[in-house]
Amino acid sequence: MDIKQAKQEVRERIWDLLEREKAVREPGVHGHIPDFIGSERAADLLATLPAWKSAQVIMCNPDRAQLPVRIRALEEGKLVYMAVPNLADEHPFYELDPTKLSLPPSEAATSKVAATVAPKVNVDTIRPIDLFVCGSVAVNRDGARLGKGAGYSDIEFALVRESDLIGPGAVVVTTVHVLQVVDGPLPESAHDFRVDFIITPDVVAVCDTPFAHNM
């Protein structure tokens, strides 16, 4: 079995499990970053981390599961970068500056509204990232993760890393349901990155290979 097929088998297993256990808000999770129940609590736990408290600039994926993270970041005055759909633009990120928004964070942080109120920017104008937040389908305690299979998070991370916008002090986290945390290894490709922290609705887990994204 090749790596691509092995990754997809894990995704299918997790998607099936989440739907079977009714751990997502709506059915039809296959092919998506799961909008898991408890995402607000996960965002609250994330906000207890020193890395969150000290972060001034956050990059966060645009999926619904991480909406509470984006809202909280804006409410706390943090600058938020969020990818445009499919990164299909020469300016592939929205810049959500809480000092310039005319709408409340709960509206501005949604992907649809951000497209109407936030300017698009490229890596040449992005400020250095303090905290990188990604959604995942599956993640293990070593920090290895699988997205939905489109590779967008990997591209986002590569863009900012290759532009020296992710420094050695930056922290990478994912918010997930506990059912998305798997035991044992996950298939990985050369372009994959790892996370430093896994945040579930109830637990903050420090990965066994912290700051592996800088290796």
Structure description:
- It comes from Thermomonospora echinospora.
- InterPro entries: FTHF_cligase, FTHF_cligase-like_sf, NagB/RpiA_transferase-like.
- This is 5-formyltetrahydrofolate cyclo-ligase.
- Keywords: Ligase.
- The radius of gyration is 16 Å and the shape is globular.
- The protein has 215 residues and is α/β, with parallel strands linked by helices.
- It has one domain (3-171, 178-214): NagB/RpiA/CoA transferase-like (Rossmann fold, 3-Layer(aba) Sandwich), CATH 3.40.50.10420.
- 29% of the residues lie in helices and 20% in strands.
- The chain has an eight-stranded mixed β-sheet, sandwiched between helices.
SSE topology sketch:
Layout: H1 3-20, H2 39-46, H3 50-54, E1 57-60, H4 67-75, E2 79-83, E3 93-96, H5 105-108, H6 111-117, E4 120-121, E5 129-134, E6 138-140, E7 145-146, H7 152-162, E8 166-175, E9 181-182, E10 197-199, E11 204-206
Parallel strand pairs: 1-2, 1-5, 5-8, 6-9, 8-10
Antiparallel strand pairs: 2-3, 3-4, 6-7, 10-11
Helix pairs in contact: 2-4
Quick tags:
Rossmann fold, 20% strand, eight-stranded mixed sheet, 215 residues
Quick take:
This protein has 7 helices and 11 strands. The chain is α/β, with parallel strands linked by helices.
Distance between the termini: 27 Å
Q: Give the name of the CATH architecture.
A: 3-Layer(aba) Sandwich
Beta-sheet strand percentage?
Answer: 15-25%
Order of helices and strands: HHHEHEEHHEEEEHEEEE
Q: Which superfamily, in CATH terms, is the homologous superfamily?
A: NagB/RpiA/CoA transferase-like
Strands in their spatial order, largest beta sheet: 4-3-2-1-5-8-10-11
Domain unit count: 1
Tell me roughly what share of residues is in helical segments: 25-40%
